[in-house]
Amino acid sequence: MSAPEIRGGSGAMFDAIAERYDLLNRILSMGIDLRWRTLAAESLLADKKRTREPLRFLDLATGTGDLALRIAELYPRSEVLGTDPSSGMLLQGTRKVSEAGIDGRVQLVVGDAQKIEAEDASFDGVTIAFGIRNVPDRERALAEMARVTKPGGRVAILELSEPEDRGLFGKLARFHVHTMVPALGAWLSGAKEYSYLQQSIAAFPPAAEFAETMRAQGLDVLEVVPLTFGVAHLYVATPRVVS
């Protein structure tokens, strides 16, 4: 019997590259992804004086837990729940959480962004980094994020994008995304499915269009921040309060 096909963007695909995922991220982004995650975590609170309050955050598509760990570091009294459909990625993340000695504040479990197992308005902030483009029903996931975020809380979405800059740096960025990312990813991971990354980035809507989709699902978009010549964008929003 032949092995089942691994669908691009599926939990099975990420299970296959879980052990090398962090290394791939560092190499393919030249380490910039860590800074991007910090920006996403920092955007969760408008009032920086609240960093030491007991807060509760949700990190969707948490993968190996990089963003969940950064949130826990920035907000030392917070609790972070990270969910992901890939058990292989979560295994790597759980090891990192244990090594950081914060098992009591960060919990990583299997979960689906399209159906969040949580009560309405139960989190002070919700994040998803490099995962929304892999969600089959993005609109449903966005509506779920709006549902579980407290009024006045923040939703921060970090996602790769097709660089729109037409200058020299934009051309270099597109070459990196279109050519270097799939080639290096396949070589380093040993998984041909890694070419899915470039395809999914090209298929993801432009920033302005995605922001409109967020608004249609009950999120008031506060800012859309292009990062590194448009290779990624940070979308920051708050759930719309219906009077």
Helical proportion?
Answer: 40-55%
CATH topology: the name is Rossmann fold
Radius of gyration: 17 Å
By CATH, the architecture is named: 3-Layer(aba) Sandwich
Give the class-level CATH name: Alpha Beta
Largest sheet: 7 strands, mixed
Major sheet strand order: 3-2-1-4-5-7-6
Could you state the order of secondary-structure elements as H and E?
A: HHHEHEHEEHEHHHEE
Distance between the termini: 58 Å
Query: If helices are DSSP runs of H or I spanning 4 or more residues, what is the number of helices?
Result: 9
Tell me the β content: 15-25%
Question: Low-confidence runs (pLDDT<50, min 5 residues)?
Answer: 1-10
Rounded mean pLDDT score: 85
Key traits:
21% strand, 7 strands, Rossmann fold, disordered N terminus, 243 residues, single chain, alpha/beta
Describe this structure in words.
The chain is α/β, with parallel strands linked by helices. It has one domain: 3-Layer(aba) Sandwich (Rossmann fold), CATH 3.40.50. The protein is 41% helix and 21% strand. The chain has nine helices and seven strands. The protein has helices spanning 11-17, 21-28, 32-42, 66-74, 87-100, 138-148, 168-189, 196-203, 207-216, and strands at 56-60, 79-84, 106-110, 123-129, 149-160, 219-227, 232-239. It has a seven-stranded mixed sheet with strand order 3-2-1-4-5-7-6, with helices on both faces. Helix 3 (32-42) packs across helix 4 (66-74) and helix 7 (168-189) runs antiparallel to helix 8. The longest helix has 22 residues, at 168-189. The radius of gyration is 17 Å and the shape is globular. The termini are far apart. Mean pLDDT is 85; it is low at 1-10.
